[in-house]
């Protein structure tokens, strides 16, 4: 079996950053499942599809022309890496992700990412649905205010407009949708390492996840993760 580390959590909890750092340290593949839903939402909006119509979204998901190359995300050959990181793309992703058929259509694509030497997967249902047998599952969380501030700084650094109070409300609304949706709701997987990142630095969170990886995978990762 290919070793898998599943990292889940709400928007802005730091799971994407940590997953990428862990994958880099281990030399493993990295799956940003949120990017898939963001690309799907963007593709649907460009085709003027109804984001509340699961039938047309499932058809699009089954043939989604997306490719991941290094740090770039391509849609129909176009680099959309920055476009899918906007708040609008995040809201679209949240809307399309509520449909069970859409999630089922993307499930196989995500599982095929588990290739040697290993995979670090981040999302909202990596440890509960996509990789329920992952030996190491983590759940990162933080207060809505802290997550909104992180997002605010990211957007400002990219030269994009942002309003902090609006971001807080959008994050709260997205949390509610993600936790209450019928298909693969956001929840802590059984046996997951739960970390509240509100007052933790990236380095502190990374150290705790790597410590857990050493305990779970032993010599398989110890040399690469030793301080």
From TrEMBL:
Residues 5-214 form the Cytidylate kinase domain. It is an enzyme of class 2 (transferase). It catalyses: dCMP + ATP = dCDP + ADP; CMP + ATP = CDP + ADP. Transmembrane segments: none annotated. It holds the Pfam family Cytidylate_kin. Keywords: ATP-binding, Cytoplasm, Kinase, Nucleotide-binding, Transferase. Its main location: cytoplasm. ATP binds at residues 9-17. It is found in: Cytoplasm. HAMAP family: Cytidyl_kinase_type1 (MF_00238). This is Cytidylate kinase. It comes from Thioalkalicoccus limnaeus. The gene is cmk.
């Amino acid at each position: 079996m290919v070793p898998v580390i599943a990292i889940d959590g709400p928007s802005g909890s730091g799971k994407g950053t940590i997953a990428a750092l862990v994958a880099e340290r281990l030399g493993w593949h990295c799956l940003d499942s949120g990017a898939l839903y963001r690309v799907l939402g963007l593709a649907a909006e460009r085709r003027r599809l109804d984001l509340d119509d699961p039938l047309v979204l499932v058809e699009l998901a089954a043939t989604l022309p997306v490719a991941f190359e290094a740090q770039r995300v391509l849609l129909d050959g176009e680099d959309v890496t920055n476009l899918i990181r906007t708040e609008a793309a995040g809201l679209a992703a949240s809307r399309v992700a509520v449909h069970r058929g859409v999630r089922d259509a993307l499930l196989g694509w995500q599982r095929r990412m588990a290739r040697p030497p290993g995979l670090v997967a981040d999302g909202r249902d990596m440890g509960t649905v996509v990789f329920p047998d992952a030996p190491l599952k983590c759940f990162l969380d933080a207060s809505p205010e802290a997550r909104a501030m992180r997002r605010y700084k990211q957007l400002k650094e990219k030269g994009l407009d942002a309003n902090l109070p609006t971001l807080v409300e959008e994050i709260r609304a997205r949390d509610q949708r993600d936790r209450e949706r019928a298909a693969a709701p956001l929840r802590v997987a059984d046996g997951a390492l739960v970390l509240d990142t509100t007052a933790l630095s990236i380095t502190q969170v990374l150290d705790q996840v790597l410590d857990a990886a050493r305990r779970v995978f032993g010599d398989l990762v110890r040399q690469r993760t030793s301080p």
